[in-house]
Amino acid sequence: MTGDTLISGAFLAYIGFFDHYYRKVLINYWRDLLENAGLLYRSDLFLTDYLPKPNERFLWQANRLPDDDLCTENAIILSKFNRYPLIIDPAGQAYEFLLSFYKDRKIMKTSFADDAFMKNLETALRFGTPLLVQDVEKIDPILNSVLNKELYKTGGRVLIRVGDQEIDFAPTFTMFMITRDSNARFTPDLCSRVTFVNFTVTPSSLEEQCLNIYLRNERPETDQKRIRLMKLQGEFKVKLRELEDQLLNALSNATGNILDNLEVIKTLQNLKDEASGVQREMEDSEKVLEEVKQDTEVYRPLAVATSKIFFAMGSMSQVYFLYHFSLAFFMDTVYSLLNENRKLAEISKSDYTTRLAFIYQELFRLIYQRVTHTLRNQDKMIFALRLAQIKLGSGSAACQDLLTQLIRGSSIIESKLSPKILGGKLSTNQLKLLEEVGNSQRFNDLVAHIESNEHEWLQLLKAVNVEDAIPKGWYNNEYESNLASTLNPHEKEIASSLRDLTIIKILRPDRFKQAAEKLIDKILGENFLDVPALNLGYVVEKESNPKSPLLLCSAPGFDASYKVDTLARDLNKKYEAVAIGSSEGFEQADRAIKQAAKVGSWVLLKNVHLAPAWLQELEKKVHGLQAHDVITHLFRIS
Known about the structure:
Strand order of the largest sheet: 2-3-7-1-8
Distance between the termini: 58 Å
Number of strands: 11
């Protein structure tokens, strides 16, 4: 009891700031400390089951909280805090949850940039309305007295001073502060006055979310059974806890010799029988739950791949600074596949295997089609190879290693190879790449073979059909034979293609793209890279929404705004074009956006590259558009 309570208290007080991985590390560290101190605790204790009441988790999920351990832990903290929460919420999951959960209490939204901020704060304090403060990258000092809870009583009234105003303080008042900037930094003084809650999505948490989405869509009866059993198990645990309390209460209230007190003996026997019955029912439900888990795990590889795809999209920002993809965009794509794909709809809901295979294959294709329109031509192959790496999965470690080696560049600063190799026809970068792969087990005979068979390799440098001109016999035969025994025929073919593609990347980079396309077709399916031409009208009407502006990027000297002119004319849409770059332009843009949000027209902002700081403010304004702004589904910004 003591150890469980200490871990629970530390969890609520300190763990909210950390992501899912470090939370596990911390809890394990705390348990080690308890063991060293000689304090007992339950090793099988799950805080997500121990701290909330059984019905609370299902109430949270009914209010749009994702069903994974990270979000459940955060919901526990949000239900038991003492200091007002400051929530790090890049994906907007906490934002949606809080608005839904406190809808009946008429939660108010505001931000420090809102002209009515003080009015909203005063109303919430006076009437006890929950207050949601958005975009809290920095805290306005006006909130200091609220964060410190500097309350005082005057004539039977509980007051709080905010600025120069004295405001009645309602005991039901609560406040949530949210920032979508995962890199925001806060002062130590502020950290001591708030409860941090980190909703930053991790691979494991997104995997659980996707698993639940697929199960809910594909096996709704299994999902419902799982929910019922989990609820039932929670109720069983609560019942056992109540029986334990009744037992302790009966023993503490007993007088005299317990063995002579027939009433106490009878009570203890009844509690024992009841506890045994609950325990049997609990064990029976665990057997059924185990069967449900087996059905659930069928969708685990799909959920793992889905999570990896999202984080692969996130890593594209290392390639080019404009490549940033939100979780909302990604999940819209997943839901579009599940709910709007005609081919999937034609497959019977009872044909689980066929539907699963189709979703797994089509997910990669749909993601690539939507993402590729945002990429430069030279970066599309990088993303396709990253998807191929995910598609290969963990089934073939050898293929994974080869593909990783293919994508990765050289880490060698200065090559030790002779610049005269192959008649001095190799560049410095080619020599570095050649030495890099030569250090791996599979390619450790490559350099020696090139030096002893230079004529064959020189033929490769000028060959037209490069794939057919790669010399044979250079690879490590022992390694190849060991590898062949672990691969199936399809994996052998892919491994061979990866081996040849690595050679082409080093010696014939001019033919790399064509050879890589063939590899992509083998892994991801034929014609995977054949993406339909961009249909801007479809993107505007089907893939975008009023709160996700479209960013049109073009090469210097090319004006892409004519595409908006043409589309607006074809769809008979009204729009206002505003040139950004002057203070008058900013004011005109603000007016145009407010008006367009009300009437459902479009706004075209030109030359936005001249005002990157203003774009950040624009993003906050668009994201924070209130319901009373009458934002319509037709409104768009580009």
